[in-house]
Please model this.
Amino acid sequence: MVNNHIKLDVFSEKVEKGNHETLIVLELQLSAGVNVLTPELFVQASKGKIKKTDIWGFNANIYCDERNTIIVKDFPYFTLAAYSNAEPILSHLKVYNASQFYRLNNLQIRRMDSEFANALIAGCEVEEVYVGIESWHQERPDKIDANQRTERESKTDIRGSRVGKLKTYTGQGAVNIQDSVVGELEINSSITDLHVWQGCSIQRINIGATVEKFKINDSIIEVMHGRKNSMVKEFESTNASLVKVFELYESNVLSRGSSSLEILAESYRNARNTEKQHEYSYLHQKEITNNIPRISKRVFPRLLQITCGYGYKPERGVYTLFAIWLIFAIIYSAFLLVPGFGLATNNEEISGWIGIPYSMYFSAITFTTIGYGDVVPIDWLTRFLAGLEGIFGISTMAIIIYALTKHD
Model:
């Protein structure tokens, strides 16, 4: 096989039996420098056998080395793939105006630029991918009409690939990253739908624009970093690991679902804003509790919420302890008004309002399970309540200690 060549199956838009109609098969040699593939070139290479207006796209197999640069312009659709058992390396690939989409299979590319094109990158290794960088430099996004920007939105789909850097500079209808490894994802333009899923690993995501919907499923993101003008309107995370989050605050993340609350808490933690961290950590745990389907499994989390705010509201623990102590003290005091019920000290029954301090004392030593024995219950009902208070005391203290030591 001759090095540095490309074999193309050129076809029209017409479909017969599920396949596009083949116009001609071409084989072109690639120079060591820049190679531009356009409909005009194909007409010339065919020696006039096909018309430019009939050309809709092509399927190509390529064999090249890293000296080659390829520019593909003005094809609604095309595929570019490696020959079987070949490992072609492209120095630079630039694609312009692929209005339907283009697909790259099993290629190694040093740098790739995509301008107003819908890309599907499958099984490739690409060091750098820049989406819309040339048009961004020519016409800054703040100067583009909003309606025009919507029309220019494209899609980028990465599957089973390794990408060093992926940077978007023009509006994206969707960015889909599936079963891939990405070193850095930098978002400099609005994205309608960003989906990272099925075992992806991304070292760093920099969000510098608006993301309408951001979903992460079964993937790992080492660092997610926001900027002043970044905004995530909807965020959803399922079986995903977000190791570190920076500078994504309540003004940047608009939704308040469980996943959004989690990244807000993590971002405030890294900003050393303890008050905000605890606020959103509490709301995150509360949302998790509300989403537990079975009521029976909600009992313990609900107790954590009520007694100490999952450890993020420790003042609730003080209020809970005080409330239990006071309620039982009032009950014991009420029993002292009934002969034969209540408490005794030194084998003498305590009665009347004078026994209120004894009731408060007995409630305190019973709740804390100290039990000196100098004040004791004299009837079965008071003994039962004392036992119940002891259980409440041990349980409440255990829940509070558990919650306080569980969170960061």
User: Anything to note?
Assistant: The CA atoms of residues 260 and 344 lie 57 Å apart. The two ends are 61 Å apart (CA to CA).
